Amino acid sequence: SLGHSLIVWEKGQSARLSEFGTKLMWAERQTQARLAAQIQALRADLERTFAIAFDPQAHVLTCYASHDAALAHLQGQAAGRGLHLDVRFCGSVDAIRALNEGRCLIAGFHVPLQPQAESLSALTFRPLLQPGRHKLIGFADRSQGLMVPRGNPLALDSLRAVARQRARLALRDKGSGTRLLFDEMAQHAGLSANDFALTPHEEPSHQACAAAVAGGLADVALGIASAAASQGLDFVPLQAERYYLVCLKSAVETPAVVALRQLLQTLAWRQSLEQLPGYQAEQAGQVQSLRAELPWWHLRPKRGHVDDQPPKPRVMP
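Request: output the structure for the sequence above.
Response:
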């Protein structure tokens, strides 16, 4: 016995959860959301083992990636095409480091559309990426914003409003792309983390942030539209961003990466992706250069270029 009643029975009315029962339900949902990454990693290990054991022709592609609803959705479609996506969700920075250290073939990260050369995104990701060594693969555009209870009772429409209202704000963990986005947007608004009433627990995923709001542990959270929709929350869009996949240039034509690129370019995948709230298929599956997509690097003139050579002396007649 838990020492408390879970259900309230009243004559002439339908049974309903007691206050204790409601708290217990939301605690269970919050725990599930916070452990989702670990559960996903365990499932990925099992699926990888079975994929190799039962189908030696299957392509296995390990991907460390920033948490994203579309990537989880992609796994199911990939499996039907003989491609096993071994997705390990982590922060954007950790994902690219895993790629550079050889722990995966593909990494996933996201940045605001048209990030400036001196933005926090550029300062964070530029040291980890190298033109000529890395190649981007288009994946999706998505919307980040405020996840709020239905009806938006505090009328929150910006980070300034969140700070002004002292609304309890749930945030992703440090090192995640969404936490970086928060820092960048707050900086642009002339705010710092000290201006916000942050909840004591950093959340490991968008789903966990949404669950915190749905369970009454927070008044608002920053996250993606699909996570808000999954918890019955309203969504206030603040920032459009682009989610990229990145691999080493040497891996672009490997069978597993080619299979992934082909899948991303199918009409079936584009239609499936755009059914997720806040997503658009943008340049999906197309290989792109770092310099073309992220203007964070300046071209250096080649050695011996005419611009590097001193002017020839003028010959007097």
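The chain has a mean pLDDT of 86.
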